Amino acid sequence: MVDVDPAQNPSSDEPASDASEEPSKKKKKKGNFWKELPVLILVAFGLAIGIQVFLGRVYMIPSESMEATLHGCTDCYGDRVLVDKVTYRFTEPSPGDVIVFRGPPSWQNDFISDEPANPISQGLSWLGSLIGLPSANEEDFVKRVIAVGGQTVKCCDEQNRVTVDGKPLDEPYKHFDEGTPAEQESFEELKIPDGMLFVLGDNRNHSCDSRCQGQGGINGLVPVDNVIGKARVIVLPPSRWGGVTDHNPQVVSMGAPGWQQNVPLGLGIVAAWPLLLLGRRVRDRFRR
Q1: N or C: which end of the chain has fewer CB within 10 A?
Q2: Greater confidence, 50 or 133?
Q3: Per-residue model confidence as pLDDT tens digits over 50-90
Q4: Number of domains observed in the structure of the chain
């Protein structure tokens, strides 16, 4: 009877053979990753475009007209704000909302420049728009809604306050540059037509808004249809992370406790987790 060496038995399961297969498996996984990378990049860009078109977009604040709520002063790092595009699909802008909108024909934008002719520059400009950099021909504005259709707005009363339907506004966000008088420029009484908005900048005497665009009056109003979305959160720089106030100036508020004021931001953070988990599952499925 001849003893058979287990090392020479082809039918036996040997750790040595498993070890020899491990390098090939690793090489196979590594090769699959590079094949999947272009697909992952396309998926990422597709999601980014879809989110910006239907849900929200990051905008850069280029001017100081909304100081100190939103920073966009000269020679400083302008705030990047996340603009919610969903809310106004179901409701209309309300007094106190900070909105981003397309400038009507009567409005003039001081930040418009020539569109780049170089295809590479155009591509870089498009990529920059994904992270909130304004394009060369950007004609979008950010202001605060003061009055809506059917209301009558005027400035000012005896205490230099804007009035709507004869009642003074409560405007804690109002800002005056250092060294300038804390007084607002007056304007004539104006009845707002339905479907139009009267908007002002928080930096009250350093903002060209419904008072001066188109020489004021009806020409300075903004159609509701031009509204892109509502500014919700400051996302950059990190030192200014937080929500954008939408205090209704037509309602005298006694203020809310701090925990209530932070509820919307907290809910937004909690709601982001399912999206992150879903993204991980999609990524793991591509890898497999």
Answers
A1: N
A2: 50
A3: 556 656 688 888 888 999 899 886 666 688 898 998 889 89
A4: 1
The one-letter amino acid at 248: N
What is the pLDDT at residue 127? Answer: 62
- Catalytic site includes residue 65: yes
Q: Within a domain: residue 18?
A: no
Q: Is residue 70 part of a domain?
A: yes
Q: What is the domain extent for residue 79? A: 58-112+126-243
Helix (H) or strand (E) holding 142: strand 140-148
Residue 223 lies in a domain: yes
- Amino acid at site 197: L
**Could you say which of 63, 65, 207, 210 is catalytic?**
65
CB atoms within 10 A of CB 79: 24
Catalytic residue among 85, 143, 174, 230: 143
**CA–CA dist 150, 226 (Å, integer):** 18
Is residue 99, in this structure, part of any structural domain at all? yes
Whether residue 154 contacts residue 169, with contact meaning beta carbons closer than 8 Å, is answered with: no
Q: Give the integer Cα–Cα distance in Å for 195 and 222.
A: 9
